[in-house]
Design a protein that fits this description.
TMA7, 1 helix, about 40% helix, about 60 residues, Translation machinery associated TMA7
């Protein structure tokens, strides 16, 4: 009797060779990183509250 139960562990994945990028690829990746950072900053600001105001004001009338 073996003590092995359940699924067998998968084999280790082969090492991935590093990709070589040319200047246009590096520029594209840099631009993409900057856009993601800007988007993240905007989301963080949006979480804090309304942009440029205090939101809707309720009137005292019924």
């Amino acid at each position: 009797m073996s003590k092995q139960g359940g699924k067998a562990k998968p084999l280790k994945a082969p090492k991935v060779d590093k990709k070589e990028y040319d200047e246009s690829d590096l520029a594209y990746l840099q631009k993409k990183k900057e856009e993601e950072k800007a988007l993240k900053d905007l989301k963080a600001k949006a979480q804090k509250g309304a942009i440029g105001g205090s939101g809707l004001k309720k009137s005292g009338k019924k």
